[in-house]
Amino acid sequence: MIYTLGETVLDILFRNNVAVSSTPGGSMLNASISLGRLGLPVSFISEYADDRVGDLIDNFLHDNGINTALVKRNSGKTPVALAFLDEKNDAHYQFYRQTLQTESKIFLPDFHSGDIFLFGSFYAIQKENHKAVMTLLEKARENDTLIIYDPNFRKPHLHQLPELKPFILENMAFADIIRASDEDFKLIFDEDDTDICFDEIIKNKAHRPSPVLILTRSSRGVDLRTPEFTLHFASKELLPISTIGAGDTFNSGVVYGLHMNRILKKDLTAIPSGKWKEILHFAIDLASEVCLSMDNYIDTIKH
Q: What stretches of 121-161 adopt beta strand conformation (E)?
């Protein structure tokens, strides 16, 4: 099973300050939909309200084959994200969500060796979620589940970084693979050099095994840093319609490659460079496809 954990929102997209579309969103939801459309078994861990927007999202997940048994429906309002596209069709966000007053109770999966757990974004660093996320990560590690973390840290939350950075570093310490953008690291570490960021991560992992770092740089390509080697991959030349969901879909391509090649946690450091090239080229292809559409996920069945 592939487990994903993150927030659920309704994305409302603006171009030239005019709303042009709305679609279910959230970084891990986007990745889940692409994985479902690739024919993989996905269980989504999240929460959204028992309201009309929540019903819309719930039906959308079911229609795409996503297991929602670990989704919590609450009595509040489903969060909304406003995404404003600039002249390069990159998105700038404003978030509208209720502030939770109590500690969140995240449903705990029954992890096994061979499972993949992809998590990240703001939901994974909210103070009220911290204890539950740590419990979940401990269980995933104990059961040899492959853990992938995408911080997906955005500028609207930069003023909270002093409070949130310890949570980000803890999440990184549990991760076997960290997939981040250069924007993430520039905000978190004030640095986007791959080697410097890798060293910063290693420093905070203490005695735990070194992770694999995948750093995406938009049109400037992708850097892969493993304990054994470093590789760079060029991006495809294209004129994007929207970059929303590109990184999330890239994540789904990485997960797809790991799943289809039956790569377990213990195998991670033994993946040869040729296999990484195959996995990351596929991820780049998927992300490029999403950049050429208004959707946050792939729109074709590829399995």
A: 146-150
Look at the pTM and tell me if it is higher than 0.70: yes
Query: How many Cα neighbours within 13 Å face the side chain of 212?
Result: 25
Torsion 31-37-39-45 (CA) sign: positive
- The two three-digit tokens of residue 91, written as one number: 């998105």
Residue type at 239? Answer: L
302, part of any domain: no
Tally of domains in the chain: 1
DSSP per residue, 33-69: HHHHHTT--EEEEEEEESSHHHHHHHHHHHHTT-B-T
Any domain includes 301:
no
Q: What CATH number corresponds to the domain at position 22?
A: 3.40.1190.20
Q: pLDDT tens digits, the chain, 303 residues: what are they? A: 999 999 999 989 898 889 888 899 999 999 999 999 999 999 999 999 999 999 999 999 999 999 999 999 988 899 998 989 888 778 888 888 876 556 677 889 999 999 999 999 999 999 999 999 999 999 999 999 999 999 999 888 899 999 999 999 999 999 999 999 999 999 999 988 888 888 888 877 655 678 999 999 988 999 999 988 999 999 998 888 888 899 999 999 999 999 999 999 999 989 999 999 999 999 999 999 999 988 899 986 554
Task: Report if residue 298 sits inside a domain.
Answer: no
Number of Cβ within 10 Å of residue 124's Cβ equals: 26
Spatial separation of the C-alpha atoms in residues 53 and 87, rounded to whole Å: 30
Q: Report if residue 171 sits inside a domain.
A: yes
168, HSE (Cβ side, Cα atoms, 13 Å): 25
70 lies in which domain range?
2-96+103-291
